[in-house]
Amino acid sequence: MAASMKDADSENLIDNHPIFKTLRSNLSSKYSSKYPKNIVEVVTSDIFVWDRQNLHLLTTNINVILANDLHYQTLLCTNQPLFDVDGICVSASGLYVVIYGALGVSVVELPRRCGQFAKFQNGCPKIVTKTIPIGVHLFQVNDKLKLLDVKWFSSHQSDNHLLLLTSDNYLRLFDALSPQLPVQAFCLAENTLYKSNFGSNLTLTIPAALGDEQAIAFDFGPTNQYLNKHIVKLPGEDIVSVFVLFGNGDVYCVLLNSSSFHREKYKPEIIGPLSMFPAAEDNYGNDATSIICLSTVPPVLVTATSSGKIYHSVVLGRTSSDDHDDVKVCKVNVETHEDSFVLINTIKDCCKM
Fold it and tell me: Measured between alpha carbons, how far is residue 263 from residues 138, 185, 259, 267, 269 in Å?
C-alpha cells in the first residue's frame, strides 16, 4: 500500500510539473496539430520538450521533479527553425539534439552540465544554445523535397553525424560540424542523380522492379557479420547496417562502412529485397509507414502500416549453405498482430491530454 501511494505521488508530481503544463497548453492552442508529433524525448533521467509556441527547447530532470522542484530550463535557439517541427531526438552521447520537420533539420548543441542533478550551466533558467541548420541549401533549391526520416549515425569515430531520408529516394549523411553539404549521398531508386560536394555524381541503384515505390523510413541494425558471413571486416572498420522500408512493404538492407565515407565514389553494399516467409500475395500490405529494428539476437524488425497493423519479422542471417549466394537475400519470418488498433487508440487518447 505504501509503495502504491508513493507511485501515485510521483505520478502527480510529474503530471503537475510546469513543463508538462506548458506542453498541454500547446496541444490545446492554435499551435496544436491533428498529426502526431514526437516532441517529447526522455533519455536516462533527462526530459526534453519542444515548445511549439515559443520555438524553444524545455528541459528538466526526473530527479528534479521528484524533489518537488517546479523549475525547468529553457534552451533558446540561436537560429530558430523556420519549419514546422515534427520531432526531436537526442544523440547517443547526449551532446546534441536534432530538431526536424518535413521541410528542414537543425541541431542544438547542448551546454555543459554542473551543480546539483547535473543541470545545464548550474541550473540557469534560460540558456542561449548554438543551433546549427542542416543542409539548408538542399531544401531551398528543392522546394518539393520532403524529409521522411532522420536518425543519429553513431560510430566509434564520431557522434555528430546524421542520416537523412528524403522524398527523392536518397539517403544523405551530414556532419553537424560541417552542415552545408552531405558527406555522402546514396540513391535508392533508378534514374535519380545527386551532385555531391565532391563534384561527381554518386548513384546507387536498386533493381528496376521497384518501379515508382518510395522509401519512407529506415532504422539501424546489427553489424554486417550477422547478415553476411562472407564479408570480412578489417581492423578499424565500423560497418553499420541500415534497414530501409518502402511503401510497398519491401525492406532493403544497406551496409555502410564509416571508414570509407571519405572516398569519392564509395558505394555501400545492398541486400534485398529481403524475402518474406511465409510469403504473402499482397506483400503484407502496401501501406507501410515505419520500421524499427530491435536490438535482439537474432534482430527483430517491427514494421507498421497506416491501417494500424504491426508486423514482427525475425531476420535470419545468410550462410554459406544458402542457394544462389550471388543474390543477396535474407530470410524473414513474419507474424501479424491484428489487435494493434489498441496502440493507435492509446496514442489518440494521449494526444487529448
Answer: 21, 12, 9, 9, 15
From first CA to last CA, the distance across the chain in angstroms is 28
> For the CA atoms of 165, 89, 73, 103, what is the dihedral angle to 10 degrees?
20
192-196, 232-236, 341-345: range with highest mean pLDDT: 232-236
Type of residue at 302: V
Who wins on pLDDT, 10 or 180? 180
- What 2-7 contacts at long range (C-beta under 8 Å, 24+ apart), as own/partner pairs, is none
User: Taking residues 10-26, what's their average pLDDT?
Assistant: 84
User: In 10 A of CB 61, how many CB atoms?
Assistant: 21
What are the φ/ψ torsions at residue 2 (nearest 5 degrees)?
-65, -40
Cα-to-chain-centroid distance, residue 118 = 26
DSSP annotation of 216 reads E
> pLDDT value at position 51?
92
| Predicted confidence (pLDDT) at residue 72 exceeds the cutoff of 60 | yes
> pTM for the whole thing?
0.80
Give 3-state DSSP helix, strand, coil % of the chain, rounded to 5: 20, 35, 45
Distance between CA 38 and CA 150 in Å, rounded?
Answer: 12
**266: burial class by Cβ within 10 Å (0-12, 13-18, 19+)?**
middle
Span of 128-132, 282-286, 289-293, 309-313 with lowest mean pLDDT: 282-286
Measured in whole angstroms, how far is the alpha carbon of residue 280 from the centre of its chain? 28
d(CA 331, CA 301): 12
Question: Which has the higher per-residue pLDDT, 333 or 250?
Answer: 250
Q: Which three cell numbers stand for residue 328?
A: 543477396
Query: Predicted confidence band at 348 (pLDDT cuts at 50, 70, 90)?
Result: very low
Contact 187, 167 (CB under 8 A): no
Q: Angle 183-185-190 (CA atoms, 0-180°, nearest 5)?
A: 170
